[in-house]
Write a structure and sequence with these properties.
By secondary structure, the chain is an alpha/beta fold. Among the domains are: 184-361, Vaccinia Virus protein VP39 (Rossmann fold, 3-Layer(aba) Sandwich); 404-604, Rossmann fold, CATH 3.40.50.150. Helices cover 27% and strands 16% of the residues. It contains 20 helices and 17 strands. The chain has helices at 6-10, 16-33, 46-52, 57-60, 98-101, 141-144, 155-159, 186-193, 216-221, 240-246, 286-294, 310-317, 321-337, 417-420, 429-449, 470-475, 495-500, 529-532, 539-549, 562-572; strands spanning 145-147, 167-169, 172-174, 206-210, 227-232, 251-253, 268-274, 295-304, 341-346, 349-353, 460-463, 481-487, 504-508, 521-527, 550-561, 577-583, 592-599. The strands form 3 sheets. A 7-stranded mixed sheet has the order 6-5-4-7-8-10-9. A 7-stranded mixed sheet has the order 13-12-11-14-15-17-16. Strand 11 (460-463), helix 16 and strand 12 form a beta-alpha-beta unit. The protein is globular and about 70 Å long. Mean pLDDT is 86; it is low at 1-22, 37-74 and 608-613.
Length: 613
């Protein structure tokens, strides 16, 4: 029921949705306006906004739903206030904790893989931001500048000083766009790759960058409308993935080690290694076979740096001629075994292309061991094997396995081959189209409430339960990107569909911490996440993980059943979040509701209350 009062008694029920939207727009406008920005200035402009914007409606609105089973939040109920973690945990990555990692074998990089804390060791506290934390610069300025306070780690500026990775200037880091293998800049390097790889016609859209450093390759590739999933371990180069995400570039903590990469088969249009130090010939070529698994038929693999062109470079690499000659010979042998076609070798760059189907490969003399066929999603914590994943079947020898490539952005809304070929039970072309229509409607409703969605304020966005990727498709813009997460317990595995659409994503189990640093996402979308994980793990652990990866003053949109959201809202009252609940855009009779939240700004050393009003 609406609260009674002079305006509440006289206002008609039909006007309430309009007022709720207007009030929430104001809510987000003010919260966005006083975010810290610039070169650590910590400026606040809320007073100016208040003078220019009539926000008096906020005090009169009741943001509870106005119907239903009468279940609400009793303000007299005790709030479980969650305390801040110690300041030592500012950069805490639970499943890549450095102290825990050292207890595991170094063989095959096992110690750099995910090792999550057991239940009794989980931190149930709020990870603080470093003192002086400011809102990142908007894209594309963020590509080149990161506030020092947000990631106060200078080691890379010393270790990579001559390689043009990163420079420290005053109170910001500057990223000149250089790299170990592209001292003349990422643009020149990408232009050379473009002489072989069709970047400019939209045919190549998704890329995997293994051993990405600070992700300058992925950052500059975005100018070609190519989106890269940048991958690097948390190692002695302490903050490389953190820098990538602060720059607004997709990245996750990860390594080619002993378990399969958390991506579906036939996902990426290309893969890239620029002096990534991965031992490609180890374990019978297992790592090249894993790259082959995640590459689409017709996809490209780029290897630059050792051992390519070793005859002219071996002295600067401080390695023997014999060692490098043997390494390149074995790489060529494995590539031939995989039936890759070598398209280019010039200087220290070599490019291979995976065949469009297996017909040509049937007639080669040596045949690799073939992996047992498994569904796409069966990779979570599964051991990597030295075997080749079978191509999808083709009806004719000249067909592309897995469907002909389509250019981006056309492929964003075209019915993907996995759906048109009925590879996903229960998902048809019509259900796909209806899903697109529904999420366009949902996202339009979000935009009416949070005006910042299309403004560039939210660069790094996560969809925790991505489905067919239609939320990300409805948002598609050069101002933002979406990490589409496919829960490992989802009823239908549709991550391959998401990649076919020219989007990126990853498998993950939300009972564990995500493979990223704190404060790396601007907006998180949680559609039916808490219904999905009901009785699977403690919801407070999921919420604390959301808080860890969300930036101060970042936003969350929960979409779920009303009773679920009421419980979620009660939990986040003790997490320094502001929340507002609204009806489904179809009206108050829909059982599904939407809960909007904004994380308050606070940093290490502050002692303010966690309770949210």
């Amino acid at each position: 029921m609406a609260k009674k009062g002079n305006s509440g008694e006289n206002r008609s029920r039909s006007s309430m949705p309009v007022l709720i939207i207007a009030g929430l727009c104001c809510f987000f406008y003010v919260l966005g306006a006083w975010q810290r920005s610039g070169f650590g200035k910590g400026d606040r402009i809320a007073d100016l906004v208040n003078r220019q914007t009539d926000c008096s409606i906020l005090s009169n609105l009741n943001y509870e739903t106005h119907h239903g089973n009468g279940v609400g939040i009793d303000d007299s109920e005790e709030v479980n206030e969650i305390k801040p973690c110690d300041d030592d945990y500012i950069d805490y990555t639970p499943c890549q904790d450095q102290n825990r990692a050292m207890k595991f074998p170094r063989e095959n990089m096992i110690y750099r893989e995910r090792h999550c804390p057991p239940e009794e060791e989980k931190l149930r506290c709020l990870v603080p931001a470093p003192a002086g934390y400011v809102t990142p610069f908007p894209w594309p300025k963020s590509r080149d500048y990161v506030p020092f306070a947000n990631a106060p780690h200078k080691s890379l500026t010393v270790e990579k000083a001559v390689q043009n990775w990163i420079q420290y200037e005053g109170n910001v880091f500057r990223f000149p766009g250089g790299g170990t293998q592209f001292p003349e800049g990422a643009d020149a390097y990408i232009d050379e790759l473009a002489t072989v790889i069709p970047f400019d016609n939209g045919m190549v859209r998704t890329a995997l960058d293994t051993g990405c450093g600070v992700a300058s390759w992925g950052a500059y590739l975005l100018k070609k409308n190519v989106i890269a999933m940048s991958l690097a371990p948390r190692d002695s180069h302490d903050a490389q993935v953190q820098f990538a995400l602060e720059r607004g570039v997709p990245a996750v903590i990860g390594v080619l080690g002993s378990i399969k990469l958390p991506y579906p088969s036939s996902a990426f249009d290309m893969a890239h290694c620029s002096r990534c130090l991965i031992p490609w010939v180890a374990n019978g070529g297992m790592y090249m076979m894993e790259v082959d698994r995640v590459l689409r038929p017709g996809g490209y693999w780029v290897l630059s740096g050792p051992p390519i062109n070793w005859k002219n470079s071996f002295k600067s690499w401080n390695r023997t001629e014999e060692e490098l000659d043997e390494e390149q010979r074995k790489i060529e042998e494995i590539a031939n075994l995989l039936c890759w076609e070598k398209k280019h070798e010039k200087g220290e760059i070599a490019i291979w292309r995976k065949r469009e189907n297996y017909e040509y490969c049937r007639y080669q003399d040596s045949q690799p061991t073939v992996c047992e066929t498994t569904r796409d999603g069966n990779v979570w914590y599964k051991k990597m094997e030295a075997c080749v994943t079978p191509y999808p079947e083709v009806s004719e020898p000249d067909k592309v396995a897995g469907g002909a490539w389509k250019p981006f952005p056309d492929r964003l809304n075209t019915v993907p081959f996995r759906i048109s070929s009925r590879s996903i039970p229960g998902v048809s072309a019509e259900t796909y189209k209806e899903d697109n229509r529904s999420w366009k409607k949902h996202v339009n409703a979000y935009r009416r409430i949070n005006k910042f969605i299309d403004s560039g304020r939210y660069r790094n966005i996560m969809d925790m339960n991505a489905g067919l990727g239609s939320f990300a498709a409805a948002l598609e813009s050069a101002k933002l990107w979406v990490m589409n997460v496919m829960p490992t317990i989802a009823e239908k595995d549709t991550l391959g569909v998401i990649y076919e659409r020219g989007l990126i994503g990853i498998y993950h189990d939300w009972c564990e911490a995500f493979s990223t640093y704190p404060r790396t996402y601007d907006l998180i979308h949680a559609n039916a996440v808490f219904s999905l994980y009901k009785n699977k793990c403690d919801p407070i652990d999921i919420l604390l993980e959301m808080d860890r990866i969300l930036r101060p003053e970042g936003a969350v949109i929960f979409r779920d059943e009303e009773d679920v959201l009421i419980k979620v809202r009660k939990l986040v009252r003790g997490m320094r979040w502001n929340t507002k609940m609204v009806d489904h855009e179809d009206g108050p009779l829909a059982s599904e509701k939407v809960l909007f939240a904004v994380k308050k700004y606070w940093v290490a050393g502050e002692n303010n209350s966690t309770s949210s009003q």
